[in-house]
Each structure stands twice: as C-alpha cells, then as structure tokens.
Amino acid sequence: MTAPVRNEPTIVEVDLGPRSYGIVIGRGVVSSLGTRLAALRPAAKAFIVTDENVARHALRTIESALDRAAIEKSSVIVPPGEGSKSFRVFERVCEAVIAARMERGDLVVALGGGVVGDLAGLAAAVVRRGLDCVQVPTSLLAQVDSSVGGKTAIDSVHGKNLIGAFHQPILVVADTALLDSLPRREFRAGYAEVAKYGLLGDAPFFAWLEANWREIFAGGPARDHAIAVSCRAKAAIVARDERETGERQLLNLGHTFGHALEAACGYSERLLHGEAIAIGMALAFEFSAHRPGLVSKSDAARAIRHLAAVGLPTRLQDIPAPLPTGDELMRLIAQDKKIKRGRLTFILARGIGAAFVETGVEEAEVRAFIERKLSER
Ligand code: GLY
Does domain 10-181 have CATH number 3.30.450.20? Predict the structure, then answer.
C-alpha cells in the first residue's frame, strides 16, 4: 500500500450527533483557520492558549489567519511542560479568558501539544460553564491522539489527569507542516501513538508503517496519510464509546505499564510520554505472548522490532539509570488503575491489530512478569 498523494486537506469526521466535528489534516491548513472559524461561529471572538515554545514558532501565523477573517483575538502564553497542567496555571488561564470578556459562543483556541490541549480544553469546559474549544495541535502526539476525543485535564498531587472533563472541540486543525520544527526525539515519541493504532486494531496499517516509517519521519504525503489513518481510527472508537466505558479503553494499550514508568521517572525528560508508551506496548505484547491462545511469540517480537527500528525504547533497561524497582512499579500501577480484589485491567493482544480489554489480570502475575523483565540484562 502506498500513501495517496494529496494537495487538498483530508477531513476526518468525529461522528457524535449534534457534537460532531471535523479534523482538518494537511500541510499549511492553519492558514485556513480564520475562515473555518468564521463559517462555524460567525462573529465569535477567539482566545488563544499556547506555550512559550509554540508561541515563538506559530503564534504569529495563527494570529494572521484570524486577522484575515476579522476575528477579534487575545491570548495567554504559559510555560512549556507538564508543570503547566497545575491548578496555578489553570487559574491563570481561566482568569485571562474571563478578563478578555469571552462569552458563551466564543472560542478558546488550544495552540500546542498535549499539555496545552488538555489545559485549554479544561478551561473551555468550565469558564462560563462551557465555551467552544478549537484544537490546533502542534506535536505529532497531539495530532494523532490528545487533540481528538474531548478528554481534557490537569494533574493532581495524587497523579496525572485526575482533574478533568470530557469536552469535545468544535474543530481540530492539524497542520502537518508544524511538525517540521519538532525535535526528532519528540516526533519519535509521538510516533509510538501512531504505531499504537496499527498494533491495537489495524494489522495492514502496521505492515504499512513497517515499510514506510522513514517517509513518515521525512515528511510529505506518507506523514499526512499516517496522521489521517490514526485520526480515523481514533474518531471511530470515540464515536462508539465517547466516555470510555468499553472499547475506548483499547486506546490505553501500553498505558498501564507506560504511566507507571513515566511516574517513576518523574514525568521528566528522562522518559517522554510516547517513549514510556513504546516500552509499555512492548511489555503488553510480551506479557500477552506468555498467555496461551494470545499473540504468538514471533508476532510479539515483530511488534517490538518495529518500535526499536524507529529508535524507540522497548525494554525497561532502555530507561536511563536508575531503574525503578518492581515494588515501585507495582505501587504506581495500583495508583494509576486501582487493583480491584488483586485483579487489574490490562489491554492485551491476540495478535498484531487484535487488542482486547482483559479485566481479570492477577496482580501476582504482573509482579512476577515485571520482576523477570527487570532481572534481564
Ligand atoms: N488518549 C486516550 C483517549 O483519548 O482515550
């Protein structure tokens, strides 16, 4: 399969009845942001939330796009990084939105990666009991995952994303040219979430990724195609299970192990979210391969080989020292997902492209598996 060559943007619909919206994907599509917003919400004002890094690269472009459509605008710039998903920064953003006299029907524009999307999305959900939100994701991770589906949140001292709301955007504009300036490591970490869609439900897409990942990293039509396929997969799952009561849990493939690893590394540069998810997915496939009737050892090895081929970490030993202990990881897994009567929910795999939700995984089995993986050299 080769990626179709496109000049026109791709539009993926998220079908949620009266709350349906489009994801516009393509190079240069942010220049159409103003006209798209003016068509969706005539006369609405826009309030842009962004971070210092993104502001340097993209704020002027967005402001010009809004100016061309005569959209009144203001903005707030927050520090980059997970630290901005705090009550302190959230308060600052909410107060800035209110001070800019944003009313119901006006728009909060989240311009940035996952942190900005989550933070601005939550502000939009609660200020004046709900403003419309537009997501303009600027990282690969945000374009294929966090900007789509309406999850918004800030962090609690007890854990990540514990204070949040479902608040669907009215539009997502994913300009793939914005990814050209991403550091290689960050792009690669976002790629873990692209591979996730192949691994969880689309074996032909995974095979296409194995053959075409270099073109995706280089940019051009293959990149746009991979983002569109990922968004289509997420949109379909969200349309069927918006509130994560069932199928949407599949999007957490690799996240139970991954969140524990991220927490053990203090949510720092030591291990980026996507890197933790890559190790988490590798562990989920290996864990599955030990169970009778699930993914074969050779397919588990194939899944892991691809993640390693693009340069993602796949082993606990790939984490810069010191390695977390088994006790620490089990404590973090319990905190993240809650062990109920000694049993955990995990996303396991019957094969590549065939993930499923397993609610009855014994804590003892996970502990023994982790201890075994930690003892490997
Ligand atoms: N990132 C997982 C989800 O949106 O459900």
Answer: no
| Domain 253-377: assigned CATH number | 1.20.1090.10
Q: Which of 47, 9, 16, 51 is nearest to 31 (CA)?
A: 9
**What number does the ligand 1 atom closest to the CA of 146 have?**
1
Could you confirm whether 255 is annotated as catalytic? yes
Chain-centroid distance, C-alpha 187? 12
Q: What is the mean pLDDT of the chain?
A: 95
Task: Give the Å distance between the CA of 146 and the centre of ligand 1.
Answer: 7
What is the Cα–Cα distance from 82 to 347, expressed in whole angstroms?
25
134 touches 108 (CB < 8 A):
yes
Residue 36 burial (CB count, 10 A):
18
Say if residues 320 and 270 touch (Cβ distance below 8 Å). yes
Question: What's the pLDDT score for residue 1?
Answer: 47
**Domain locations along the chain:** 10-181, 253-377
151-156/159-166 β-pairing: antiparallel
Q: What tens digit of pLDDT does each residue of 231-268 get?
A: 999 999 999 999 999 999 999 999 999 999 999 999 88
Q: Is the pLDDT of residue 210 over 60?
A: yes
Q: What is the pLDDT of residue 230?
A: 98
Partner residues linked to 356 by β-bridges: 348
**3-class SS shares of the chain: helix, strand, coil, % to 5:** 55, 20, 25
| Contact call for residues 137 and 172 (beta carbons, < 8 A) | yes
Assess whether the C-beta atom of 242 lies below 6 angstroms from ligand 1.
no
